[in-house]
Amino acid sequence: ALRLSYLRSGGRDPAVLDQLLHLQLEATVLEKGTAGLGRGRRMGTAAPQPAPEAAPAVPAEPPGTGTHGLDAALLAVELENRRLEDELLALKVRRERRADAGSRAAQRHTEELAQLQAEVGMLRCHAEQTKPWLHRPVLPPPAAPSLPP
């Protein structure tokens, strides 16, 4: 859960990821070691039992070899897959929100355009109705006399 949380929050430091994987391997070994001891008990009612002395807390082989290495690699791939799925879902949600916002803006612009066209039509109609009543503009007399040819 800690590794998954780190990956989901954008963590990408290889050293931290390796350390988290190592801790996860230790936890897996401890769980497998104590699973046989506490089969009849309910989880959470008894104190956690330490691992037996014979079973090491850290696997003997490096994390890249054997079944533990394969399990760890598979788990790492699964965690990365989940992180990528979450990222993909977030991108899809953002794209849908943008599309919705774009269609709402387009609809609003269309409504505004229709309203403006209606206003222009009304103004034209009003101008045509009042046109006969308009008088010719009276121009002021020329300031200087005309020049001789």
From TrEMBL:
<feature type="coiled-coil region">
    <location>
        <begin position="74"/>
        <end position="126"/>
    </location>
</feature>
<protein>
    <submittedName>
        <fullName>CCD17 protein</fullName>
    </submittedName>
</protein>
<dbReference type="InterPro" id="IPR038800">
    <property type="entry name" value="CCDC17"/>
</dbReference>
<keyword id="KW-0175">Coiled coil</keyword>
<feature type="region of interest" description="Disordered">
    <location>
        <begin position="37"/>
        <end position="69"/>
    </location>
</feature>
<feature type="compositionally biased region" description="Low complexity">
    <location>
        <begin position="46"/>
        <end position="58"/>
    </location>
</feature>
